[in-house]
Design a protein that fits this description.
By secondary structure, the chain is α/β, with parallel strands linked by helices. Helix content is 40%, strand content 14%. The protein has helices spanning 23-31, 51-62, 75-89, 104-116, 132-139, 158-165, 190-202, 258-272, 277-289, 291-314, 340-351, 377-393; strands at 38-39, 99-102, 122-127, 143-148, 174-178, 206-210, 234-239, 252-255, 318-319, 327-331, 353-354, 356-357, 368-372. The strands form 3 sheets. It has a 7-stranded mixed sheet, sandwiched between helices. A 4-stranded antiparallel sheet has the order 9-10-13-12. A two-stranded parallel sheet has the order 1-11. Its EC number is 2.6.1.-. One of its GO terms (biological process) is amino acid metabolic process.
Length: 394
Amino acid sequence: MPQLAFDLTKSSKGLPATLPISKIRKFDADISQIEDIIKLTVGEPDLSTPMHIKQAAIKDIEADDSHYADFSGKKELRDAISNYLKTSLNVDYDPETEICVSVGATGALNAIFMSILNPGDKVLIPTPAWGLYFQIVRLAGGQPVQIDTSKDDFILTADKLIETLEGEGKGAKAILITDPSNPTGRVYSPAALQEIAKVISDYHLLSITDEIYAELIYDKEKHHSLSQYIPERNVILSGVSKAFAMTGWRLGYIAGPSEIMELVKKVNSFLFTSVTNNVQIASAEALNNGQADTKKARDIYGRRRNLVMDGLAELGFKLAKPQGAFYIFAKFPERFGTDDVDFAYKLAQEAKVGLTPGSYFGKGGQGYIRLSYASSIEQLELALVRIKTFINNN
């Protein structure tokens, strides 16, 4: 096996060498060695991609659709995205100039920040938040500024945003908001979005909203986008992974003002050239004809959420009610202290249940754990039995 030349060991290491690996992935790998463990750690739907979506991909392959697609995405898919956003959010995006297709929402997010950030630019991130946000911003040369929302039921308020902009976040270029939230499952109301939108406009920020979980909202709630209030300042980031159980297909998309999208399309083409053709056709089928699929998924996840929420509450966990996504973000009983990493490892080793430490999601997460209920009812019920035994024995 070749070993890197000694004279290259330092010079070949750029910015990525200074960034830590994903703590969530490392934790998941660590506990995967435990026999018979129930892992409720990763946001991976256990449902299958609907058959009509798979058939669309197969048909496209059989039609020999094997050449490069448009670097901004196939027209069929961009049209489907435009129609979907109009129907679901009542926001208008031109499929020719304001929409771009990328390799997963992660690829899309990299393209966005590489397009807009100069070295040292600040990006505000309400926390707890998905851990890769911080590293993606750093990789693009930016500086993430965390805004702890734990004292406001994990919802960013206009007052807290102003306080940050007048303090640590002074001079920030952009803000990244996840709605519904990973890891908390919290959802922003129209009133909250309107108040935040005013602050964003007053302080001349660009906003990016990660709306990947928009279809997974419960209790007859409805998703609202910041683009409904400040379309001239907001960029929507989304994809088909979560709502249609297509995480492995790797299809994300971006929608925003044409001036921003011109840059995003350019960078996206540098990174990926284009997205796999049959994946794009399958995604267009999902967005055009997948309404029954998302309703079915919501019903399934909603029942699981209620089961886990009630079960953890009975064991003394405290949580702000998750209205969307498929996560429970819960504070474990006070007698266990606040070291969530220690709690999670002990739970994995002694109870054989894997829950992600809350501090891995940034400020406001200490003393919490995240549970992904994208698993079967049977697995969740067994996990609750094991957690109960652990709590009672410690």
